[in-house]
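2024-03-11 09:14:02 INFO worker-7 job=invfold-0412 stage=load source=structure_tokens
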């Protein structure tokens, strides 16, 4: 029989993990090569509800749209993975990257990165399932 968390426990778990992202960064990678690293705000994720939290956005003065983070691509390649680091540069979690609808843990509008391009993250949702093995 699988274990099921109550909503209170599930939200506490999500908040515990997402809280480690505050002031950290997201590295986008091609294999082991870091293509871009974007810094996250000090309070990027609000309290979870129903096992999920959506990153807070701020208005980017240059783009004029709400964003979670922006940054320059520093190497050229096909992005296939990501790592989220805490504010002490320790890896917290990692996963695959794909185009939207491709099934990656982090989905982007494109995965081909060119050095000097601007990478914009407009939405990030962190969630955990209530039921597991």
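2024-03-11 09:14:09 INFO worker-7 stage=emit residues=133
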């Amino acid at each position: 029989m699988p274990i099921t968390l109550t909503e209170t426990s599930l939200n506490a778990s999500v908040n515990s993990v997402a809280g480690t992202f505050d002031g950290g960064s997201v590295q986008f990678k091609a294999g082991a090569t870091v293509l871009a690293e974007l810094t996250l705000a000090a309070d990027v994720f609000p309290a979870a509800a129903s096992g999920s939290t959506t990153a807070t956005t701020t208005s980017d003065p240059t783009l004029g749209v709400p964003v979670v983070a922006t940054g320059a691509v520093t190497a050229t390649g096909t992005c296939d993975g990501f790592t989220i680091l805490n504010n002490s540069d320790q890896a917290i979690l990692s996963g695959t990257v794909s185009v939207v609808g491709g099934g990656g843990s982090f989905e982007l509008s494109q995965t081909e990165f060119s050095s000097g391009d601007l990478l914009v993250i407009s939405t990030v949702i962190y969630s955990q399932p209530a039921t597991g093995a």
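2024-03-11 09:14:09 INFO worker-7 stage=report msg="The two ends are 8 Å apart (CA to CA)."
2024-03-11 09:14:10 INFO worker-7 job finished
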